[in-house]
Specification:
Elements: H1 4-17, H2 23-37, H3 44-50, H4 55-62, H5 65-71, H6 83-97, H7 115-122, H8 125-137, H9 147-150, H10 162-171, E1 191-195, E2 210-214, H11 215-225
Antiparallel strand pairs: 1-2
Helix pairs in contact: 4-5, 7-8
This protein binds zinc ion.
Length: 226
């Protein structure tokens, strides 16, 4: 005899097996197809040829096909990003991978922006990277001091600018200054730009007082400080 508990279990098992595709899976596959084809203009016909899921299901799920594209950041909505936002996203990928990011990586976390906005703004991904490097290498070796922080007689603000972070990470070869760990060798490694003498203890946000640390060395350091 089969008890009620077992029936419930079987029902749940069957349900899980047929469980619907999540929104995230659909969005991820749209981005994957866009990245593979090198275009943000994914028509339903194109998706039917290259995608993993039923295109009419995607349209129904998000309301319309165009809505789905918009959510995947492949928009026809032509969302405008500032250069700073586009460059910030490049830096976060560069920091995450410990090397120059590849175009296809725009479609994967931690990227917030797909390749469409880069193509619209710079013409191509390689032109975007070139502009980014020019921007990041232009001279600026201290963080600007915001008004609210100038009261306590600091020369610099706490948060290093994008340029400063890129300079520190590049100088340190995108590897932890303490243990040498690098995301280029081990994708688990996460890098941080750290104040050598903490800002709270009077350390300034200058290139000489900043270093690259991995999460575990960074954590170890703050434990020591406390
Ligand atoms: Zn480390």
């Amino acid at each position: 005899m089969v008890g009620a508990g077992v029936e419930l279990l079987m029902f749940e098992f069957a349900k899980a097996k047929n469980s619907p595709v999540s929104d995230d899976e659909m969005v991820a596959d749209l981005r994957k197809v866009a990245a593979a084809l090198g275009t943000t203009k994914i028509t339903q016909k194109l998706y039917r040829q290259h995608g993993k899921f039923d295109d009419s299901n995607i349209g129904r799920r998000f309301g319309t096909w165009n809505k789905a594209l918009e959510i995947a950041g492949l928009s026809i909505s032509n969302q405008q990003y500032s250069d700073e936002q586009l460059f910030e996203n490049i830096l976060s990928l560069w920091q995450h991978h410990g090397r120059q990011p590849k175009r296809a990586e725009l479609a994967e976390p931690p990227s917030d922006i797909s390749q469409g906005p880069y193509n619209r703004r710079f013409g191509s991904w390689s032109a975007a990277l070139e502009q980014f490097v020019d921007y990041a290498n232009s001279s600026e070796l201290t963080a600007p001091n915001p008004k609210e922080e100038s009261l306590n007689q600091r020369k610099t603000g706490r948060d290093p600018s994008l340029r400063l972070r890129f300079k520190v990470l590049s100088r340190d070869n995108f590897a932890c200054k303490q243990c040498g760990a690098s995301p280029a060798k081990n994708p688990e490694v996460e890098l941080h730009v750290d104040h050598i003498l903490p800002w709270s203890k009077g350390g300034e946000t200058t290139i000489d007082n900043l270093q690259t640390l991995c999460s575990s060395c960074n954590l170890g350091k703050s434990n020591l400080t406390e």
